[in-house]
Amino acid sequence: MTAGAGPDLAAASGDAGMRGWSPQRVWSVAGAVVLVALVWGFYAWDGAQTTAVLGGTVRAATLLVLGAMCGMIGERSGIVNIGIEGQFLMSAFTAFTVASMSGSLFLGVVAGVSTGLAMGWMLAAMSVGLRTDQIIAGTVLNIAALGLTSFFYDRGRSLGQPKYQSIELGPLADLPVVGTALFNRPPLTYLALVLVVVLHVLLLRSVWGMRTTAIGEHPGAAATVGIDVIRLRYWNVTLAGGLAGLGGAYLALESVGTFTRAMSGGRGFLALAVMIFGRRTPLGAYAAALFFGFTTALQGQFQLNDTFDIPAQFVGMLPFVVTIIVVAAAGLFGRMRDPAALGQPYEVR
Amino acid sequence: MRALMRAAAVPLASVVLGLVLGAVLIAVQGHSVTSAYGALVLGGAGDADALLRTLQKATPLVFGGLAVAFAFKAGLFNIGGQGQLLVGAAFAAGVGFGLEGLPLVVHLPLALLVGGAAGAAWGAIAGVLKATSGAHEVIVTIMLNFVAGNLTDWLAANPWQDRSGSNIIARTPLVEPSAEIPTWGWLPAGFVLAVLAAFACWFVLERTTYGFEVRSVGANRHAARYAGISVGWIMASTMAVAGLLAGLGGAIESLGVDGRFEAGVNVGLGFEGITIALLARTNPIAVIPAGLLVGLMEAGAAKMQFESGVAPEIIDVIQALILLFVAAPLIVRWLLRLRDRPDAPDRRLTLGAGWGR
Lengths: 349, 357
Known about the structure:
- The complex is a heterodimer of chains A (about 350) and B (about 350).
- Chain A is mainly alpha-helical and about 350 residues long.
- In chain A, about 70% of the residues lie in helices and about 0% in strands.
- Chain B starts with a helix and ends in a 6-residue tail after the last helix.
């Protein structure tokens, strides 16, 4: 998986694939090879712990990549979405509550996705329709989600049924190293993986993807060739919210199995860093999500065994410090360019 | 006066709308709106004790609001008030209990200064990164909030933990009496500092060359650079000032209200600064009434729950609604216009307002 994601990361940066091996591509592949070798080495050294860490990596990465995909559809359309954290939290809440009341996990997922869509529509209404500052519109979502879920939070409520359980994908699950981590997972994880691939193709190859890029880069030019900028932005930001909604449902019904106050715990913001790191492509974001998920999984593993005497709080800082470094390094060294019209409201004249 | 009315129309209408929708929520839950809001006001301003509570709650809110408003003038969105406040609170408490035998005139200012400096350093990280690498301050400050939460937890649970008796809570010992901020009757001295800080911010922003440069960068970064202003320095220093303000708010919380730093106690305080700054339309003086309003709601929430059974989290919902209306003034304008459409003066009253400039 990691090996496959490397070249895509480079390919996504432009037409590098056409001209053969750019330095970027060489670095990506070299990095992936080293990573695979390292993982294999650790697996040979301590199989059980490596499997645990890899499983934790995939588990954390699923939520992050769903949030990152929500963010990248918005940003490619020219809309910054820092409300992913609130979308996660709100959807986790409704998914949990509906699943608990109806006794059906599936209905819970439907409720979570619907909530994500509704929150996405709210963001679109504020930032596209009312032309509110996009950062502030996202902050409104975050604060509103925290307030509403705290207010309606019912401490006594439980899911009343087991959370989503793992499904073994036949012989694939018996593969060494990645077998358990990738092919013995609960259903929403598989769904997320499928969505990553589908969205990657759609964003980079379909008419919709091209139009989305157009309204994020130069909405004026897009409008002159007949694209309804406002309408497409509305649709994209709303539908993207559904992905974050799925993330919320995943968090409550598959990853944790309950709802607790502020349970999104900053991962909506980490998803933004994942999106930047993955250059706003789904496969790139998944590679980045695996990396971030790895830091989270390591943190969990460090706390479980006493091999390393590092205070829990410092291990807990790891994903956040890494994010700061990534974001700063992206600005210092990267040729990562934001969509040209990112953050600017579009007005029909 | 007219100008003041015009500027205050959208925030006031937002507050009213937020309270009305909050009332609907309370009624839907089957509680009495009048008894709930009545208890809220009595609990926040009913007697000297209530007033003291409100002013104590308002103090970090005013500082948090200033921390957002000041950075906003330079076009920076500081969501890091939470982290800046936490390090300020922890380090002020550290100085407050760690140094003994100092006179009050030395110890208290020193503790405040260290708290403020810790906040300033925390804010400056985001400012410097923004200036040097273009890293978006929103992402960096949010990440720094989590880092600060972990760091201060560790400080309170390990090196600075209160080891007296059987204490197992992650908190520092009580600060020395010489580092305590006094309270005069119903007036906490910390609130006086908050008011002074608000006026100082106004003075710096509106009456000094530095403030002019800050506002220039906020209005148009490129034009400011062309005019010879060092944009990087302004961004870095503005974030440091914002951090200083939030850090002072945290320091006063430790030295004047809690008497110590305890992990997890101040969580959420920093985020309310955003609501308050936007409610005040990023005007430093207007931050004072905005902070008082939210402080009153928080001070009265306990009494409201006690007397009418409404969960105190309703305050968070009302705040979020107010923020929504302030941030999207078009909603409010549309609602107001709907009510008295043909009145030209009324329309002008609301149309003149666009937030933040």
